[in-house]
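so my prof wants the structure for this chain in the tokens format not the other one, which i didnt know existed until like an hour ago. anyway here's the sequence
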Amino acid sequence: MTERKTSKNGVGVMRIVVTQKRKQLAQEIATCLQQNSARVGETARSRTESRAEKSANGSCTGSRAESSPCPVDAVENFSVVAAPLTNYKKENFQLPATFPDWVFFTSARSFEYLDKAQIAQLQSLAARGSRYGVVGEKTAAALQNIGITCAFTPAANARALLGVLSEQLVADTGIAAQNPPCAWILGSKQAKPTLLAGVQKFGMKVEKIAIYSPYSLPCLAEDFYDADIVVVTAGSAAVAYAQLTAVARVRPAPIIALGEQSAQDAQRAGLEVIGVAARPTAADIAKLILKIDLENSRK
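here's what i got, hopefully its the right format
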């Protein structure tokens, strides 16, 4: 990990960049880090004071009392900023006229590019019996915002969604009567073919609708030049980061990925992945950052 920048009070600062244009996630991570690091720091002080007291009373050796299990400085100073690596453009698309038995959304961003007529069409399909499945909790929330409920708990990735769908189809006694069942897959034009191939193996007729396309920005934002950790929020951002740092001749920072797919994309792009957040929430990301920070402080 790169050498930390020193703050005005002389304490090292860990610089974290979140690969998003919106600042909300970065601000939430900063708040979680501040809250959790304060608790960890207080625990460290208490343990140190307790061990020092035991040492003074002859209950602990001096060498053990002098060693803090959790260096306080390592968990008290963070700088978290948001900076984009990619932008997005809407594709020229139309929803098919066919009735789908299933509608799958692979990203929450898809809903940003749906117009009122298309949203009304999706709502009408749900009322007529189309069932919806999504990848990610944020995608499920976006679907809920337009008044449609998922047929099952949102999956973490395409493979997990296929697993849940497989169980659903086995339990669905009416699926064999469909001739053949139809599915729509809506999301990024560059989405991996995993879901498409899996649904086709279930014997469904699939229509893939590209809603939007990501593309890399022309240059690397200054915030990335001295980053200690980069939180990659999507596979396309990981690829863009690898490309832009190569052009700028900047050594890439270690990566925390949101999800296994983003982690795999980052590794394929030649980046060092040091952690994968269990969920794309500020709390989970902050816990992972604190864990990594403490592990590095002990080296």
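also thought this was worth mentioning. The first strand starts at residue 5 and ends at 6.
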